[in-house]
Amino acid sequence: MQTPTHIVTGVIIQKAFEGKNRALSLTVIAVVAFLSHGFLDKLAQITYHPANPDFHSVFWVSYHLTLLATTIVFLCIWWRRYKWGIIFANLPDVDWIFIHGQEIFHFKIPFYRQPHLHHLLGYIYEKIPPFSWVTYYLDRLPNERHNPWACLWEVLIVAFLILVIRLMTMWKRPAPRAAAARK
Question: Percentage helix, strand, coil, to 5, in the chain?
Answer without folding.
Answer: 75, 0, 25
